[in-house]
Amino acid sequence: MDRTDKQQQQPLAKCARKRYNEWIFRDVPSDITIEVSGGTFSLHKFPLVSRSGRIRKLVAEHRDSDITRVDLLNLPGGAESFELVAKFCYGINFEITSSNVAQLCCVSDYLEMNEEFSKDNLGSRAEEYLESIVCKNLEMCVEVLQQCEMLLPLADELKVVSRCIDAIASKACAEQIASSFSRLEYSSSGRLNMKRQAKSDGDWWIEDLSVLRIDLYQRVITAMKCRGVRPESIGASLINYAQKELTEKSSLWNPSSQTKVDFKSGSNGHEKLVVETIVSLLPIEKLIVPISFLFGLLRSAVMLDCNVACRLDLERRIGSQLDIATLDDLLIPSFKHAGDTLFDVDTVHRILVNFSQQDDSEDDLEADSVFASDSPHAPSQTALVKVAKLVDNYLAEIAPDANLRLSKFIVIAETLPAHAQTVHDGLYRAIDIYLKSHQEIHYAALMAEDDHKPAHQSWRISSGALSAAMSPRDNYASLRRENRELKLELARLRMRLNDFEKEHVCMKRTMAKSGSRKFMSSFSKKIGKLSFFAHSSSRGSSSPSRYSHRTDSKVIERTCASTE
């Protein structure tokens, strides 16, 4: 035990000593000292050995030397638990509650306080309370599970955890069944109908579960699925838990947080585990959770560098319902390294591939996908048209990015089948924006044109000179005419080159001075509008608003810092 631990335990020891001095036998001197984590108790052997098999054995082993001190530093629950044990051994009444029953179950097992050594011992009393009181109340089960977080693995070995989890799942399922029956009513025609369900009917437990640690929460949700709890309720619980863990408790997506998040340090292990676990728990049915929530999880997975299976699962789910996505959904920031595109184009490309190849991948999905019970079909023409329009607007939004290579721009534009594009205006607009923002492509094309034109002209001149059918006078006139055309063409070429060089120099100066303010303004505005776990989006995918200048300085500051 280091010096810091001892300093922290001194106040606990004083507090425990003060409490037990109020009820201990003061007229009989103590003959044994029990040291536990967080306190030391001066007690009497007889009350302890009459209830605890472990202490009885320790005393019996040292009968010759008359043991006066016993160390129980690994006692579950420390000084707080042992104080209750000591009270029980001395016949002092105390109340067993949901906040201490898990400790009592574990400490009674550790000290062997069972029926073998004493009738109606602490272990049997704690077990009776757990079975008859706690397991019949969902809120109390959740509280006991919270207490078990510090008592693992012993609480698991004693099946305290599993009994509470089974009780929660059974109670939630029973509540939903009762809620469904309560909505049955007879219509005027005598037919039995079911009233529309209120959002909170039978799902009041969602908020209660959000206090659990992620590993226990995962076990509860898994048990609920096995019991047949509605997928809609499972989805609502996952959304609520994600919002608590990734927005309220964590600085990851909290705009008001002053703490800069370092995504490369590996200090976000908890958030990463939460995202991967929630994705693994998502219901297999489509449209159970909003697509904006799936995109929020995907942004988190990209930022936290979650495992490949997690990201591919999200991309597949999103791809199966991409026709209801918005432009803001697709704007996933890139967190790779400096010099990369500001938005994650590769992830969007994989989502588009999943959308367009749903029919082709049906056999694979039936085998091992999360959509086994809801096999996808080829997207309808209506869905294709919607996604094609979405892609056009996405291309227009990312086109000004100086780091966006032409090959990536083209691969996004060509992902969907040809019949998806019924109108090409949006694509032409995106191409125009890209070319204006990447004028080096104009410049390179012009250089190629410059290399091509003289060869063409020389062929015309030589072909005229070698024409034996022409008279000398006609041949001379033809050469003069071609010479004038060549001079005019060269003059136009020089003027165009000068114009492009001036524009190229101006563009480089502007980029150097302002740090590409025009594009960063658009990027900042988009990042500021992203709602990582929103239930709905504020606007559709009709068109990108590139000239709006609203920004969220804190979000963009953290985003840019992560790529440095």
TrEMBL record:
Keywords carried by this UniProt record: Coiled coil, Ubl conjugation pathway
Keyword Phosphoprotein recorded: no
Principal subcellular localisation of the protein: membrane
Protein name according to UniProt: BTB/POZ domain-containing protein family
Family: Belongs to the NPH3 family.
Parts forming coiled coils: 476-510
Residue intervals of the BTB domain: 30-98
Domain (NPH3): residue spans on this chain: 203-492
Superkingdom of this protein's organism: Eukaryota
Region of interest (Disordered), residue spans: 535-564
UniProt-annotated location(s): Endomembrane system
Annotated membrane topology: Peripheral membrane protein
Low complexity compositional bias, start-end: 536-546
InterPro entries: BTB/POZ_dom, NPH3/RPT2-like, NPH3_dom, SKP1/BTB/POZ_sf
Recorded metabolic or biological pathway in which this protein acts: Protein modification; protein ubiquitination
Gene Ontology cellular component terms for the protein in this record: endomembrane system
